[in-house]
Amino acid sequence: MNARYTAVLVILLIVLGGGALVYERQERSGQASNLALLGKPLLAELRAADIVTLRITKPKAALTLARSDGNWTLVEREGFPADFGKVRDFTLKVIESKVAQSEPIGEADRARLLLNEPGRDGAGTLVEFLGTEGKPLARLILGRKYFKSEPEDAERAPADGRFAMRPEEPKTAYIVADPLEQASARSADWIERTAFVVEKVKSMEVRFPGGGGWKIDRQADDAGWKLAGAKAGEKLEITRANAASYSLGILELADVAPRSAREQGLDKPIRVDATTFDGLSYAIRIGTLAGEHYPVSFSLGGSLVKTRRPEKGEKAADAARRDKEFAERIQKIDQRLPRERAQSAHVLLIPKSKLEDVLKKRADLLEKKATKN
Q: Tell me, what's the pLDDT at 327?
């Protein structure tokens, strides 16, 4: 009996030892496979020059960027210009993303790491790169942020990387060192924030839909403002006039409105008409405030003055310097005008803080009379 028991133990040890050996070999094989991937590009086949369309799909939103004639536009915003630098930087970051770690995963892991395709539970962000005629080039699902140590606030903490998965390899999760924060389906995250620029204002008129308004003008860029129709005892507060005109030169874009949000009071808008010493004119319409933003549309007119008027008695050296400065300024304006003309075909969303000085009532532009004790 003891001999039989001993024999069974020997057989079990052989079996278990063999199993351990097989397991060890599998582990080594898996580790070798993983090690071979480390440091390699996740999308080695993708080339920036081949990309014509970039599509980003989240569980409740989608955005498409399209390239044409070297420029990128937002398809869902009727071709509004995208920020070329943002698209380029994101594309290069994805192409340069290298495998920092890879692990086998199952269905539960995919959902937990938000690596399922949009439309399923546990969905992540699907990024698709397409070539000419819609040819698929590469697809990538970006999931949860990766942290080397768990932060107190994962939403706000800077990540050490991000979980990613190639849809054609659903059983493997990768970690890339860049969290790829730019992978957003919000149009606001892909546009340049500078709006149209109204500089060197010569005249400015504001008219409110319910009646009332004001107009200011000046004879030269360094001259004082005058209030049209000023009554006896009324005196314009110059700093407020300066603030109103200056605001038109530093407008910011919060976003560009979708077609469904284009009738926010723009049928009965506040009208702002401005002319500049550069020869340009802007007819601006401001709709009803929605949250923190005004919907704004505008049209651009006039003709850019490209010849400087010499100043009386100026010396040759001064004339040469001023001519150079003038030429450089005109060149900058010429470069921005195509973008402004593209913006004029859309409804822009401007932060209300940027229009507060423009939308002051007439009485708020006047100097306050001192009160007697």
A: 95
